[in-house]
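A common beginner's mistake is to predict each chain separately and then try to dock the pieces by hand. The better habit, illustrated here, is to supply every component at once so that their relative placement is modeled jointly.
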Amino acid sequence: MSEVNSVPLAPPTAPGREHFVRSVLLNPLGLAAVVILVVVVAAAVFAPLLAPFDATAVRIFKVNALPGEGYLLGGDGAGRDILSRLIYGTRNTLLGALTVVVVACAIGVTAGLFAGYYGRRLDLVASWIFDALMALPAIIVLLALYQSLGSSIYLSMVVFGVLLSPGFYRLTRNLVQNVKHELYIDAARVSGLSDLRIMRRHILLVIRAPVVIQIAIVAGVAIVIQAGLEFLGLGDPSVPTWGGMLQDAFQNIYVTPLSLIWPGVAIGLTVMAFVLLANAIRDRMQSGGAAPARAVRREPARSGSSAMAAPADPDIVLDVRDLVVGYPDGGRDREVVTGVSLQLRRGEGLGLVGESGSGKTQTAFAILGLLSPGGRILRGSILFGGRDLAGLPEAGMRELRGRRIAYIPQEPMSNLDPSFRIGFQLVEPMVTVLGISRAEAKARALRLLARVGMPDPERTFRSYPHQISGGMAQRVLIAGAIACNPDLLIADEPTTALDVTVQAEVLDLLRDLQAEFNMSMILVTHNFGVVADICHRVAVMKDGAIVETNEVRELFAKPRHQYTRMLLDAVLEDGDTRAYTPRALPEVA
Amino acid sequence: MVRYMARRVASGVFLLFSISILTFALMFGSTKNVASNLLGESASQEQIAALNHELGLDRPLTTQYLDWLRGALRGDLGKSWTSNVRIGEELQRRLPVTLSIVVVSIALMTVLAALLGIAAAVRGGWLDRVIQVGSVVGFAMPNFWLALLLVIFFAINLRWLPATGYVSITASPQAWAASLVLPVLALAFSGIASASQQVRGAIIDALRQDYVRTLRARGVSRRSILFRHALRNAMPAALTVLSVQFIALLGGAAIIERVFAIPGMGSLTVTSALGGDVPMLMGIVVTLVVLVILVNVAIDVINAWVNPKVRIS
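With all components supplied together, the output reads:
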């Protein structure tokens, strides 16, 4: 029962049915699986026509005959034709698997639908029962019940179906719980459809593909276990079965070891066909999702590395020129940043503004050298501290991160490791980056926590992330970012996930810290209010490129680019009456 | 934490009772032909009735169960119907044998799955593909068939290892190890492949989390991110895999012990099933369920130790 629960809970992409089947068949392994299964089913249906001999006919001179001596694959321990028994064995195998699948699927899916849809007590009770079933070693139970069930393998398979139903139950229940709160389900309920109708029409559609995968896997498990039971001598000896054939071959292992091969290969191929079919369907469901994760590795692949032209102005901390970032997409690179240039002075705050998908976060990650797997810098340069970060290997990048360039993420809760105390997560980087002792790092972390406004630094230091609020978590992340006095701070929508009142406090904190440490800061945001609050200059991004860079006052007063004007208008038309009056910020040299 | 553990243990005890009632009802509820099976076909009606009376099968099912339960709580599981041995003693002889195989298999599986899974998650490439193919092959190939192939190859042809039998570790550690090699390989192969793949998935999942990027941005070393942060967060998933594998191994051992003629719980189950030794089967099921529950509670403890959300609630 090992693999039963490994089906992913990805929602299906709901393509047309024929299209779906065709794309599974286009997958070479999927096609091979289907071909094998068709052959097996055909063998079962047309067994009397295909089998060269009567599968139960005993011929004394053919006992343990070698392949070719009258029988194509040889004779078994009782002188019966192995090939004919192999062909007839498909019937018993497929019927057994069918029994298991029908029972497991009927029980598991039905219970899962109701438990997932109605929840509460029903869910509690059902989940307990199915968990209990999973605690039972299936083969032992089937053996123990052998006396009660009798020699019919199908009764055993019914029980086995019950034992495998938890896989279907969990799968269905989780899927239903996921879709239950989707808007279209609510809409269906509001419009007066009955629960049963909703389940039939909407929910069954969602669970269809994952259940088909589970069916294929369970069928494979059933075939293996059934063969195992027959190998042990359970089941009707008068019916030719693959497991029974293995038992016979085992008894003659010293005489004709070759006879062991055929039933084993038959079982292996059939089960493998089921697994490959399941994998092909799963691949089909997941394609369109993220590309398979590869090792995170920087691959400098730039052409025409712009020579180390140091910025003319010594006050310029960061100088990005013609940056192009791409992700592999079907053999080619899809460019998400298409030539960004920007400059940042010491102590300056630069707002990077644009709609979602405009490439502002990717620009930020490129500077940090933290593009998602697959992403790379295709062209351009990032001059920082006399070095071009675009071509810098990971080791060199790691020396800069934390110490000279720091990062504040968007979503505070998911950016703290849930398994470690906050103190540890602050101390560890300081020890690594600054090479100070743990005690020193702790003292420093406590000072930082106090500085970012934690009422009880000691307590926060000892807490786990799930014990503090989102606003506090963001302060912790800010403390972590400034821990090693970086020159450049990159903040990616640092306030988006926070409540409005907390937003203002966090922005105040950021502004104060920036002035205090004289840091340069890139603030990625889609919110002009935030920009007006703490930035000196603004760069507006659209479709991977910067369309306008300007002083904050200038930009609000006289936007030059059509797109900037449109963005500003859109904000005002939303009825937001807040007037954007940029604050007076300390002058930048 | 203490309350959490108490709840887990209580749930386990309740589970044990439920299963014992259910299996008892299923096994003793349909023992009509047991007596005639035991006595042979020539037995007279009186002989059958007498045996039924002697075994206590003529009493109501609830009385039989309560009787059994009273004994079981005192550690007395009754007598075998077929061989006149005390069931408790027989299980005490058999359990260490099966545990040797299962524990060695699980240990091997844990170590290899962790190594292979992490390597595949980080390096990808050919190792990744080997593990993927291995898990499909391991799933499709019945473990007893693999066992038979191993016997043909290593025991019969090469004569490197014994084909059958079991030597206790106290008698001769070397012979004990030699007698375990093939059974453990056969039993653990598919588990190693599938567990590696699941560890790989869990590590990749963990490395994709937002906090990994943030830790990298702070200058934390790659080694610490992988072995400290990712590994720790992948632990709960890996532990679940282990508990599922443990249950699968207990079942798999039944068939594997038969192939290698190892006198453990598995072969005892098979002979008792074929011979109709119902109280022995009852004892086996209960013993194994106790074992499964103990392992699950142990895994819950480790999980709570690894995962602060469980520990502090």
